[in-house]
Structures are given as C-alpha cells and as structure tokens.
Amino acid sequence: ELAELGAVYDSGALSNRNVIINGNFTISQRGDYTSSTSVSDGNYYLDRWEYVEDGSPTSSLIHNTDGTVKITTGASVTGSSRLRQKFEFSKFPRQYDNQTFTVSAKIKSNSTNARINVYAGGYLSLTGTTAHSGGGSFETLTATFTTPSTISTEFSVHIGIDGASSANVSITSGEYFEVKEIQMERGTEATPFEHRSFGQELALCQRYYERQNGQSGTTIYGVGYNESTTISKGMIPFKVTKRAVPTVSVQNSGHFCNVSTGTTYVASSVSFDGQSPINTRYTCTSSSASLVDGGAANLQRFTGDAIIEIDSEL
120 near 151, Cβ under 8 Å? Predict the structure, then answer.
C-alpha cells in the first residue's frame, strides 16, 4: 500500500485529482430521470454529460436512486450509445498537451462493447482494462493514455457501448451500460474515486449550466424598473460565473409575473439580452398592466414551473 501511495504521489496530486465533473452523477439540474427517459443524440441530461450515438439505437436513460446512470438500447443496429464529457481548454489551451492521464469508472453491462474511449484530435491509444466482460456485474475499467503534443480540437472522455477507437459495433436491443464513479487523473495510477461535497460539485456544474426555477414558494429572479405601463426591465445575477457568455432562455413565460407597488401583473412574455458571464438583462411584458413608468419592479414566480435556463456548455 505504501508503494502504491508513492506511485500515486509521483504521478500527481493526492487531492483535487479528478478532472471529471459530476463523475458520480450527484447533480441533475435538468430533471430527476428516476423513470425511463428517451434520450436523443447531442443532448445533455445529467450535468456535464452529453448523450451521443450513431445508428439510432433508440436508447433510454434512468438515474437510479443510488446515483448510478443506466442507458439501455431499444433497437438492434450498427452504431454506438454513450455518454461524453468535453474538457474546457480554450482559456489555457496547453494545459492538457503531452500529459499522461488515467480514466477509471465502475461499469455494469451485458455487452462486451461497454468501454472507455478518449478523444483528443483523434481517438487515442489506451492501455488498461478498457472494455467490460459483458457479465452483468460492476467491473472497474481503466484507460491510461498520453495526449498529443498539441491538442487543437475537442478533448473528451466517452463511456458506453462503443467500439475500440469509437468504431461502430453491432448492438442488440436491450443491451445496456450502467456507470458510476468516473474519474480522470494525471499519471498512470487509478486511485479511489474522489468524492467532492454537493456544494462543490454543484458550483462546478453551474459554470457550464444553471437552472433557476420557482417550483416552491415565491422566487425573485431579478429586480428592475417599469419602462412603461406594461413593460419592466431589470437584471438577473447568475449563481456562478459562466465559462463564457451563455444562452439564456425561459420555459413557461406565463408562470412569471411583475410585482410593482405591491400589485402582481402576470407576464405574457419574458426575454433576455445583454448577457455576460455574470448576469443578463431581462424584459418582462404584461398584456394587461398598470405599471408606473420608472417605478421599481421584481420579476417573480407566479405559478407552476417558472424556469430560466443559463447555458454555457461546451
């Protein structure tokens, strides 16, 4: 054990090791997914994890109560079904160049094509136990690799039913992979999964995506002023600074309201402009209102799921 600890020390840090964000799927801002949910190529479900596929295997996802994520295919095709996490390197583009990393994950599957792949300007050569036996029990897979001297395009980890170097494979309906404790760390050693606190993990996820909602109680999203008798404008601060200027959108605009001089005016539309990594301007219109021009106003939840999405994913 001391020798192993020494090898870990030589390879990299003993804390803050995991480059992966939300590797144990504790954060799920977009939904609970505790029942089977149909998934589509290129969409995010669990935070920082994008679902990608080839061949349309009509997969479904479930987020189990133990935190694991299970993806099951619903069609027999030639293709792939996998989760992908992209790493941010645009601000410090050389930090991942010519580095040795090890990815580890606990995976359960009935497919011998459940595996780890890594992309960095091309799929990389991996060493370790990179594919599952297909025996239906949890197995720890590992993949050690060295990145190119210069990474000029996407750097990402892929986990799922996939061929070596992400070649398409024959998939039978009902094949699945279930995964937890995904870690990527510098060096050649796969160390035990590094658990972060819920608050730390949430803040890391919110650098890329944040959902503000008002599902319970009265929620104030932003404060501003009345521009006319029907329109108010103001500013909404983000909980975490985003990695870049985000896209801001609204769900259920009629579930918002202006509150001015103690009176509630139901919103007919909510829009956004002037986004920055730290906040956005909003415009809220109420079709039948008697707002006092220049008076103070709050943008609040009126009913139901008044949701604002702030998206700065890679």
Answer: yes
Q: Residue 3: exposed, middle, or buried by beta-carbon count in 10 A (0-12, 13-18, 19+)?
A: exposed
pLDDT tens track for 254-285: 999 999 988 999 999 999 999 999 999 999 99
Amino acid found at 238 = F
Q: How is residue 201 annotated by DSSP?
A: H
Q: How far apart are CA 76 and CA 175, in angstroms?
A: 9
Can you tell me the distance from the alpha carbon of 183 to that of 2, in angstroms, rounded to the nearest whole number? 22
pLDDT confidence of 2, banded at 50, 70, 90?
A: low
Contacts of 199 (CB under 8 A, 6+ apart): none
Contact 209, 47 (CB under 8 A): yes
Measured distance CA(204)–CA(200) in Å, rounded = 6
Residue 139 has a pLDDT of 98
Query: What sign does the CA torsion over 6, 9, 15, 19 have?
Result: negative
Q: Cα–chain-centroid distance for residue 280?
A: 21
133-137: Cβ within 8 A, 24+ apart:
134/109, 134/110, 135/110, 136/108, 136/109, 136/110, 137/108
Give residue for tokens 């008697």. Answer: 290
CB atoms within 10 A of CB 103: 26
